[in-house]
Amino acid sequence: MVESNDTNNRSSLLLLLVLVFFCSPWQTVSALKKVRTLPGFDGPLPFSLETGYLEVDEEKGVEFFYYFIESESNPEEDPLMLWLTGGPGCSGFSGLVFEIGPLSFDLQGYRDGLPSLFYKADTWTKVSNVIFVDSPVGTGFSYSRTGDGYQTSDSQTVHQLATFLYKWLDKHPKFKLNPLYICGDSYGGKIIPILTLEIAIAKESNKAPFNLKGYLAGNPVTGTSYDDNSKVPFAHGTGLISDELYESIKESCAGQFTNPSNIQCANCLNAMDTVTKDISTNHILEASCEFHSPRPGYIRTKRGEANYYDEVPLFKSGLPLECKESRYLLSTFWANNETVRYALGIRKGTVAHWHRCNSSDLPYTNDIPSSLPYHLKVTNKGYPALIYSGDHDFYIPHVGTQDWIRSLNFSIVDDWRPWYVGGQVAGFTRMYSNNLTFATVKGGGHTAPEYKPKECLEMLRRWLSGVSL
């Protein structure tokens, strides 16, 4: 689904989706499970959790796994959100546990030899029904029955996600009238506007069961030079590089900080990489940690200084509390436990080893160079958009996100101002025409809800209600 073949691809996808919706062949291959307890959690779950598979490519045997949590307020009327985690290749479980869902890992507690889970109050399921999907294929517990099925791309993922939504709503007809939002972050932010446009076009055919109302993208990848070019001004603006180095980079690179065109530019960028190499790109104020496994039951942590290592026992609450990666590591051990897999309803023999993020091993093609035309087209159709960024994110800096939003040439409706939670500044926001809202989350990283859950929940609550931040 590259831009040059946009019309033909949309028509083909729409025809296929209509056939899928009316023929309903998936009923014999889908499976779902109501999950009432989870290993590591004390007692029954205080929310409704369903897991399941849906076949999104019958020819290649591609099955998407998902986690669905009903709204804890009013599931019959609250919005339905499809959540796309980043990567590509990061599991929907990562979004559920580390970002916007109602569960989190306790670094200092274990139950029956497994990392323990606890209920997280600042969950987006307080105001919405959320489907966390393992996408693209090869992510989390999603799998293919054929080798060809694992060869995928941006356009193929959009196609399969649209099919997934048709099938999911057919299995859950009571949610067809709920307001639908396409949401996610990081690399998911690139897929979101493309998928939203496809859903919007399908809705316009009057043959689609979508009550689409808008989309939301956090710390989003766009697939353009904006993301990478913004790292230099961000590093300077946050005091990571000196004024002199910044001026040298600007002069030698002529404002283009990716694919250096001369040796001076390359040398300056290498100098920046050297001085920032021990900074956490996900959040510049967080500890930079690296894990290794020299012997069973133990890990070695590398923190900061090049030769500083600390060996700690994995199952004796020895993981460093200051490292975000500690909880990531726990999720890997938890999800690969057979008792956990049974509780989740995982099909045996489909995924040998679960990874929170499997980006490096996916045979994935980035065949849509930029999501910017899709942002423009879908907002031109009148669908509201919320774009937000953690302001300490060095991976997809907010200054680059602001640059590409400005490139859309929307007029400013409500200019730059602070927004508040609990009487404190929670970030800054600007409202554009085409009903596009941009917001920073003060103190947030990549991704913002992981660091500022209370503020992000309130941001979502206000935006869904149609009030300004």
Tell me about this structure.
The radius of gyration is 22 Å and the shape is globular. Helix 3 packs across helix 4 (188-204) and helix 4 runs parallel beside helix 11 (372-380). The chain has three domains: 3-222 and 367-465, Alpha/Beta hydrolase fold, catalytic domain (Rossmann fold, 3-Layer(aba) Sandwich), CATH 3.40.50; 226-276, no CATH class; 288-322, no CATH class. The longest helix has 18 residues, at 6-23. A hairpin with a 4-residue loop joins strand 2 and strand 3 (62-69). With 469 residues, it is α/β, with parallel strands linked by helices. It has helices at residues 6-23, 92-100, 154-171, 188-204, 225-229, 231-237, 243-253, 263-276, 324-335, 338-344, 372-380, 398-407, 448-451, 453-465; strands spanning 31-35, 49-57, 62-69, 80-84, 103-111, 114-119, 129-133, 143-144, 152-153, 180-185, 212-218, 289-292, 298-303, 309-313, 364-365, 385-390, 412-421, 424-432, 436-441. The strands form four sheets. Strands 1, 2, 3, 4, 7, 8, 10, 11, 16, 17, 18 and 19 form a twelve-stranded mixed beta sheet that branches. The protein is built from 14 helices and 19 strands. The model is unreliable at 18-30 (pLDDT under 50).
